[in-house]
Design a protein that fits this description.
single chain, 646 residues, Rossmann fold, GMP Synthetase, Chain A, domain 3, 2 domains, five-stranded parallel sheet, globular, binds coenzyme A, ACAS_N
Length: 646
């Protein structure tokens, strides 16, 4: 193995041979109120707790301690909005002032340690402030991405029984203003009524104010203006919490219609993220990190908000797109202007840039000499895009793999430990702390080069999920039972002879659209609510730009006579209303029958092969083989109509 004997290898081995020592040493990078005496409590395995008995405050570690150490003037946050053409900076001292005041606002709303606060905000500094303010008083935030519709927001409010909601008048998407307050009002009306206060940041150019809603309060909900409340509030001090107490709940798609609330603790999270900044990203105090994601996703939580601030670096919060705001040079402009050292984005963003500017002519206009590494995650970095980026950027391009659940990278080529080479198509080597295995359906190891289920042997390192908000039984059932002693990632792939991991796809019905994780089961449930639909199947099909896109197949109830184009429009609108624009749902095919096994299971894999134009392997268990031919004809007809992939 090429990397045996390397620094990476030594560190990886040390982390697995003596995790207790390894993580206690790493814990020294964090300020504790009550320092940990031991790292891991395994007494309730397979449920584990990191740093039992220790207490700390995550906001203190991300903000206060840097000011106390004399670095108050250092830039903590750069906000760059390509949507409004504005840029602003907050020093650590200014961030402390803003966060403590907003923490005071939350406290005045009656939010106390352990209470849940839903944050539904666009990419503005208030999003970072609100998250840190929750952490400051020991409250648990749950950030909901702005591209989700009211029913999704309501589902999250109800699942975590949020007592407060922090929002803004709206977000800005190219060519349209997304007004948040009608969505929030609808979500509150749909929800069970746990929310008592809504705090609204009024944005310039986006209509909607707290006062408009406070005049007609629904069921005792107070609507408060962010600026007015902050002007009056007394700053709140940090509240120490147990290392194992939840810092946040972040919902992600699973195989069922209801999203899973991933619970992150305070102590393990702070230790793991601080460690990853040095070891994986090679970022330290004063460096500039830009994760071009959204605070609504785990990448935003970990590498826009917490990790850069935990280590005293500068983080960039970008409101805009990789293309069209105003052009495909937007990323290079931001990276050059703010002297970004590490850029982190999703392959789909690179593909969008490549499509618009294949020769990278716009890059040549900017000085990217500060850029040390480009990290990619969210979906597999296809070798072609990798080669294009590496050629054009003159800096290492590193694919790395992780999930909302793990909170930080599981596989990467850790830039801070070594200068091991990257390999096209591979997500890199197992990151220290993780014991990654590829196994068959029965849990037997697969040899190098053989495809299988990617599992992580327990215990997971600090920073990975504590469990699910819905309870540990659901956590066990979803992740810990399929392969005893292991966490099932839901991804499949293989190792090569040198231990590089190749993550090739999901083993379940989760799909990945433009780096956004969606549940096909959820989309099917929504389609099935249409009165004309008898049965629905949704599959993820290949998409040149977004990696995958959701394609819906429906059969109609007997006697229904509807124009197909009208039905398609109605179903697309239904998904947008129920799930949100983030689903980017456009394809609907009406078919006579769905291919099924004799036991009634829909053959999604066969359907995917038909749509992707791959060789179709029809399983012998199929109920009616002729359905496959019907489907081939329907797909061809649909393509010819010009409706596909719209
Ligand atoms: N609030 C409201 N709506 C949003 C939104 C938000 N925060 N983010 C996206 N949407 C909307 C878009 O406006 C679009 O709406 P439309 O149907 O009216 O056009 C829809 O959701 C789909 O958005 P998206 O998938 O982003 O497609 P796009 O065509 O607007 O942009 C890319 C394509 C590739 C440029 C874009 O997907 C991108 O930048 N992807 C990177 C993803 C990423 O960073 N993922 C995080 C993982 S690290
Ligand atoms: P999310 O929880 O939204 O971050 O999505 C996690 C899922 O995205 C993983 O389980 C993978 O299926 C996919 N994914 C993320 N990063 C990569 C990568 N580098 N290579 C392949 N798949 C990835």
């Amino acid at each position: 193995m090429e990397h045996v004997g390397s620094a990476y290898h030594r560190v990886h081995r040390a982390s697995l041979e003596d995790p207790e020592r390894f993580w206690l040493e790493a814990a020294a990078a964090v300020d504790w109120e009550q320092p940990p005496q031991r790292a891991l409590d395994s007494s309730r395995a397979p449920l584990y707790e990191w740093f039992p008995g220790a207490t700390l405050n995550t906001c203190h570690n991300a903000v206060d301690r840097h000011v106390q150490a004399g670095h108050g003037e250092r830039t903590a946050l750069i906000h760059d909005s390509a949507m409004t053409g504005t840029k602003s900076r907050l020093s650590y001292a200014e961030l402390l002032e803003r966060v403590s005041r907003f923490a005071g606002v939350l406290r005045d709303c009656g939010v106390t340690a352990g209470d849940r606060v839903v944050i539904y905000l666009p990419m503005i500094p208030e999003a970072v402030v609100a998250m840190l303010a929750c952490a400051r008083i020991g409250a648990v935030h749950s950030v909901v991405f702005g591209g989700f519709a009211a029913p999704e927001l309501a589902a999250r409010i109800d699942d975590c029984t949020a007592v407060a909601l922090v929002t803004a008048s709206g977000g800005l998407e190219p060519g349209r203003v997304v007004e948040y307050l009608p969505i929030v009002a609808e979500a509150l009306a749909l929800s069970a009524g746990s929310v008592r206060s809504v705090v609204v940041k009024a944005r310039e150019h986006v209509p909607g104010r707290a006062a408009d809603h406070d005049a007609t309060p629904a069921a005792g909900v107070r609507w408060l203006d962010w600026d007015e409340q902050c002007a009056q509030a007394r700053p709140a001090a940090t509240v120490p919490v147990a290392a194992g107490d939840p810092l946040y709940v972040l919902y992600t798609s699973g195989t069922t219609a209801s999203p899973k609330g991933i619970v992150r603790d305070n102590g393990g999270h702070a230790v793991a993220l601080a460690w990853s900044m040095a070891a994986v990203y090679d970022i330290g105090p004063g460096d500039v990190m830009w994760a071009a994601s959204d605070v609504g996703w785990v990448v935003g939580h970990s590498y826009i908000v917490y990790a850069p601030l935990l280590v005293g670096a500068t983080t960039v919060l970008y409101e805009g797109k990789p293309v069209g705001t105003p052009d495909a040079g937007a990323f290079w402009r931001v990276a050059a202007e703010h002297r970004v050292n590490v850029l982190f984005t999703a392959p789909t963003a690179l593909r969008a840039i490549r499509r618009a500017d294949p020769g990278l002519d716009l890059l040549a206009r900017h000085d990217l000499s500060s850029l040390r590494t480009l990290f990619l995650a969210g979906e597999r970095l296809d070798p072609e895009t990798f080669a294009w980026a590496e050629r054009g950027l003159h800096c290492p391009v590193v694919d790395h793999w992780w999930q909302t659940e793990t909170g930080w990278p599981v596989a990467a080529v850790p830039r801070g430990l070594d200068s091991l080479p990257v390999r096209a198509g591979s997500a890199g080597l197992p990151v220290p702390g993780y014991r990654v295995e590829v196994v068959d359906g029965q849990g037997n190891p697969r040899a190098a080069g053989e495809e299988g289920n990617i599992v992580l042997r327990l215990p997971l390192p600090p920073g990975s999920l504590r469990g699910l908000w819905a309870g540990q039984e659901r956590y066990r059932a979803a992740y810990l039972t399929a392969f005893p002693g292991c966490y099932a990632t839901g991804d499949s792939g293989h190792f090569d002879e040198d231990g590089y991991l190749y993550v090739m796809g999901r083993t379940d019905d989760v799909i990945n659209v433009a780096g956004h994780r969606l549940s096909t089961g959820q989309l099917e449930e929504v389609l099935a609510t249409h009165p004309a639909v008898a049965e629905a199947a949704v599959i993820g099909v290949r998409d040149e730009l977004k990696g995958q896109r959701a394609s819906g197949f429906v059969t109609l109830k007997a006697g229904v006579d509807l124009d197909e184009a009208d039905l398609r429009r109605e179903l697309v609108a239904l998904v947008r209303r129920q799930v949100g624009p983030v689903a980017a749902f456009r394809d609907v095919l009406v078919v006579q029958r769905l291919p099924k096994t004799r036991s009634g299971k829909i053959l999604r894999k066969t359907m995917r092969q038909i749509v992707d134009g791959d060789e179709v392997a029809v399983p012998p268990t199929i109920e009616e083989p002729a359905v496959v031919d019907d489907l081939l004809v329907a797909v061809d007809r649909y393509r010819a109509s010009g409706a596909a992939g719209g």
